[in-house]
TrEMBL record:
Membrane topology annotation: Peripheral membrane protein
Protein name in the entry: BTB/POZ and MATH domain-containing protein
Ranges annotated as spanning the membrane: none
Role noted for this protein: May act as a substrate-specific adapter of an E3 ubiquitin-protein ligase complex (CUL3-RBX1-BTB) which mediates the ubiquitination and subsequent proteasomal degradation of target proteins.
Amino acid sequence: MAGTSTTPEKSATAMALMSPTTSRSVTQTVNGSHKFVIQGYSLAKGMGIGKHIASDVFCVGGYQWAIYFYPDGKNPEDNSAYVSAFIALASEGTDVRALFELTLVDQSGQGKHKVHSHFDRSLESGPYTLKYKGSMWGYKRFFRRSVLETSDFLKNDCLKINCTVGVVVSATDCPQLHSISVPESDIGSHFGMLLENMEGSDVTFDVAGEKFPAHKLVLAARSPQFRSKFFEGLDAEKREITISDLEPKVFKAMLHFVYRDTLTEEVDMVPSTTYSDFPASDTLKGKLLAAADKYGLERLKLMCESCLCKDICVSSVANILTLADNCHATELKSVCLKFAAQNLAAVMRSDGFEHMKEKCPWLQSEILKTIAGCESDNCSGGEKSQSVWAQLSEGGDTNGDHADKNDKGKGEGKPFSVQLPNVSMGSSLGKRGRPLLVVCVCRFLLSMSQVMCMLLVQRSH
């Protein structure tokens, strides 16, 4: 049987033509920081050993994190002699490896911060590993309390804690011989120039005497209402259309979005207000939200909802909730309902709540539904949020303090916070039964409010 032979010269030539491949494994950290301000430190003392104040959730490396500060310490053996501070994994995850840094800020301006850090030093056992959601890294004896209260770290009853998280990630890097960078899309700027130059405009809008040239095709492509108006309605042949229900600045901001897909600087940079005497519907953001709802601009509506969400506080939430309900802004409405449910006692004392009851009485039922849902969820999960029962019966007091202590900072944060389970083994039977009682009370109030709403509807007819 004849075989095929390869000469040494041919084999060497083949080997010479085959260039080696390469790859590289890169392990590094994805870093992110969060600043946590604790206002009213003296009022937080006495809340109990093992009980904490939580920061807002922040995201680093694809995971959510939170800072937990224990004014009376976490370790019962220390008898409240130390404050404790921890960084907790607040989202689902297993064996998350990370580096951490906790800094207690020196507020004297001398820069003598107290820093506990994994960064810029070698670690014998490598990065810290958090096994599951709720795992924490930090210090039970973060600072001796008696020293802290006479130091420059505490100023005007305020503490500032900064933290940095570096999530460890690994990736295999394969070299590319050639690459071509593609710039970000500039279609918005081109359409924006079309609007500014008024080139090819085939329709003009008259808004309170101010003229706005535009292009029917662009408007029809962006808005179902304009499409119906120009191609199916009586305005198909009109060259000038009068808009009587929008202010010029609102219509201008809406046109800016239609052409550029962004908000105007005036909308984006408008300072937040408390809305206590200034309804959200009267702001540029609120009017633009209503316009987006009317003309079917869903993306613009969501952008306005995101802006208004940042303005939510105890004094504004009822006004913003009323606006969200009128404009079918479901995302914003959901956030408002949750915030109102979590801060019910303080919200009920606001002027906006009275306005909401007059204009949209059915929203009271929806708040009660949200309260019942929150309480049921907390019961099933074994966790205890600020009890609605306590808010209604004791004016918002859940830790033995008066309502005015807790209400003061309600509007400072966002409507969501992370709380770890806090179940006492020595709780009495009465306390364990309270969540069920709360749900029953809320459901009773809900049914009563629905009956009242039905009576109001019948009376109006």
